[in-house]
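lol ok so funny story. i was supposed to be doing the assay writeup but got distracted and ended up predicting the structure for this chain instead. priorities right. anyway since i did it might as well share w the group, maybe its usefull for someone
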Amino acid sequence: MDDGGLTEIGEGGGTTIVLDARGWRSRADFFAALLPALRTPESAGGNLDALFDCLVAGHLGVPLPVVVRVSGASGVPCDVADYLARAVRVFDDARRQYAVDAMMVVRDGPISAGQARA
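and the output, tada:
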């Protein structure tokens, strides 16, 4: 599946990842887009516990800070939308509990290039 992902590494460091959720039908689709974009180890599991572990253990192959922007989420099935909300909380928990400089934002519509860098 073409995940429509874009990873940009800024001049001053930091990473913006833009993912297009319009074709996602399952949690597996989300992880198939997210994990390669974060350049996690191949052994990273496709679940929220593993995502949290990668965040707090520093198992990301992209420089921090990381902003993951998910667009086109209005068309995903309800269970995937609920899972995306939980994934946002995983990023928030890693930031709050372990000062991991990473966040995830989910939007219904497309994200423009200017919004991706903001």
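Residues 6-117 form a domain with the Barnase; Chain D fold (CATH 3.30.370.10). The longest strand covers residues 15-20.
back to the writeup now i swear
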